[in-house]
Amino acid sequence: MFTFIAAVFSIVIINLVLSGDNALVIAMACRCLPAVDQKKAVFWGTFGAVALRVVLTVAAVYLLKIPFLQLVGGLLLVWIALKLLLEDSGEENVYEAGCFWDAVKTIVMADFVMSLDNVLGVAAAARGNLWLLIFGLALSVPIVVAGSSLIIKILKRLPLTVDVGAAILGWTAGEMILKDRFVHPYLGTGVPGRVFPVALAGAVVLVGHLWARRREEFQ
Q1: Separation of alpha carbons 79 and 76, rounded Å
Q2: Number of domains present in the structure of the chain
Q3: Domain containing 117: what range?
Q4: pTM for this structure?
Q5: Structure confidence by residue, pLDDT tens digits, 27-51
Q6: Mean pLDDT calculated for residue range 191-195
Q7: CA 84/CA 109 separation, integer angstroms
């Protein structure tokens, strides 16, 4: 009984800690949509994210054998962070056709990149118990939905937090890249391992603003 309760507690903590980045991406992707579309984008983005987590849970063992998977995922997350910063610099165009599904695609793509750690953490805490695994996957839904709704409100009131969000995604990308088994021996230890995520977080914000400014000059 104690082992079961400990596993449930571990799953709750893992979801609270690791679902934050997913909620942040959803909030940043949806922040400029009309209120009605925000709710729909959060729903469909979360639905797609949960479906991906189920697939990842089944395929996790095989995915880990793919060379440079986390390196490619980290680089893709950097691109998503830059894309979200660029969208923030062009809020006057947010109501153009297709931006709703573009937001959903961004959410699902980012969640695919970031969910592997979450899935592996929950699977480890479940210790082979199918019902605990299902509980962990189900628990991530209200956490992500509630978290993204709260973050959207913060982003609306404090636009500067968009930069903070992009920096967090850059940091997450750096951590993901360092975990890649082919990269870790070269960058994942000592000073490079401590500095790289911070440097990448700063680079994402700097490059994003320079890119946005450059784009404005040519418009």
Answers
A1: 5
A2: 1
A3: 2-217
A4: 0.74
A5: 888 887 887 788 888 888 877 877 7
A6: 85
A7: 13
